[in-house]
Design brief:
3 domains, about 140 residues, mainly alpha
Length: about 140
């Protein structure tokens, strides 16, 4: 069946205004379920209409009809609690003093202190290099 896209757009406008008949809504539903390619401005409408069709086919199963799996729930709840406790204990016992160049945590205070001293020396070296470059630039400017 061939659809006129301008008619579909007009039907969509009327649909959202609440002015369509059941037959016109059926035409919209037919277009959106059959059309492979839809214009960009109508893709959201297609998702909505096709989604409502999908939702109308779903059935609700009351909780009383579903099988109760209390033992599994309790077991997995205990597993989750044990895993959470293990993670909390491991985090609480490990103090992080900083991070190395690769992003790994430094947990040894001696390694952290040595890294801090090295960074301090690098900072002083960088300052010295900056001063040397400034002096060289001044000497070149004066000559």
């Amino acid at each position: 069946m061939e659809f006129d896209i301008n008619m579909i757009r007009a039907l969509c406008d009327r649909y959202f205004d609440g002015d369509t008949s059941a037959e016109e809504e059926l035409t919209l539903r037919s277009y959106f379920t059959q059309a492979q390619e839809v214009p960009e401005d109508l893709k959201a409408v297609k998702m909505m209409i096709c989604g409502m069709d999908e939702a109308s086919r779903m059935t609700y199963v009351p909780a009383a009809a579903r099988p109760v799996r209390k033992v599994r729930r309790i077991f997995w709840g205990m597993v989750a609690a044990a895993a959470s406790a293990a993670i909390c204990i491991s985090i609480a016992n490990r103090e992080i003093y900083g991070y190395d160049a690769d992003g790994n945590a430094i947990t040894d205070p001696q390694v952290a202190l040595e890294s801090t001293v090295l960074l301090s020396h690098l900072s002083k070296l960088e300052t010295t290099i900056d001063i040397a470059e400034m002096i060289t630039q001044e000497m070149e400017n004066n000559n």
